[in-house]
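=== How it folds ===
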Amino acid sequence: PPPPGGGGDGGVRHVTRFLGFGRVGNSDKKNKWISAYNVTPVGTLSLEQLGTFPQGATQSPYQPPPPSSAAPGPPAGGGGPLSKTICHVGNLPFKLTNDALAFAFAQCGEVVRCHLAQDRDTGKLRGFGFVEFKEEAAARKAVDAQGISVAGRQVRVSFAPERRDGKRGRDGEGMTARKRFEAHPLMMRSADCWFCLSSPKVEKHLVVSIGEEVYLALAKGPLVPEHVLILPITHYGSASQLPDAVWEEVEKYQKSLEKCFREKLGKTCIVYERNTPSKAGQVHCHLQVVPIPLDLEDKVGEHVVECGAQCNIEFQHNQNWRDEEDLENYVVYTVPSTKATQLHKIPAGQRHPLNFAREVVANLLGMPERADWKNCALSVEEETKTAQDFKELFRAYDWSLE
């Protein structure tokens, strides 16, 4: 680090300690080859502790000299204007929910929404997040407060940097607080998504079970009353993009549903997903689960291949389809009880029949007239009743209630 007093840009710098050990067997008793020391995680230190330099601190010998040309830019943490209603919260536990985060900050004022930052590859929490308050005074109170605890852990709170327009580097002037929050570069945009649980567009009366990573919802315009969707709580575009931990929970729900249908209805089930570009530009992964008669269990693969051949759509058996490279647009059918899986990879730029995936299952069930979900639409009252009936059917198999 720079000598005490900081690096001249006003940012907080913390000390890196280099430990020097002597060679094993050396005769100089002053140079030990063993040592004991305590390590304090950086995440547990306050800003004041991070900025405190112990006696004897020196400039890092590995610090590169500043460029001779170009003026120094703003700190990487975000120079420029700060938001007045959105707070950055650090040192968060790695097992937390948005609701728990909102509850912890409700003491400061009305919380509009929260976001927990996640690793895009693994889906695991990264230990920080954002809280948006309705009033500026509430955000100020959160920043000024001392000792706010979330799930037993003291957190660090500061105002989040305003988003800059990525095209021209301009601040988002004229944007409402909500728009700025949704457009924040670290936010997952979910306000316009029909399936993100944090979206106001979610029809919550259709939700029948909520796990840790995944939830179940009744399908709109169901093929049969027990037609449900398996959806990740976090916004992912397709099942091929899901982290392993999320996919494991998807499979857990598949097994529970298959067992429920087999024992309660005397049926098995088919699971299918159609992942193709949408005019809306934002697709939320959803796998359709439909119970089918047991005598169709071993006929699904042949039926899917035949239906595809009629439309010049080629399917291939592939149980490890999620391991396929460059898997972007596709249609996949799986029978969980037999692991039989048929995959069609849609070539880039090729149009795919919009209703093909559902038509295949409708024809399998001998219900071609129900291929269009709009012909099967229910009223809100009917949907609510169907969802309640499914909850009762699935209750004994719903592991999320344990």
Q: What stands out?
A: The helical segments are 47-50, 98-105, 136-144, 177-182, 244-265, 300-310, 356-364, 380-394. Residues 1-12, 63-79, 164-172, 180-189 have pLDDT under 50 and may be disordered.
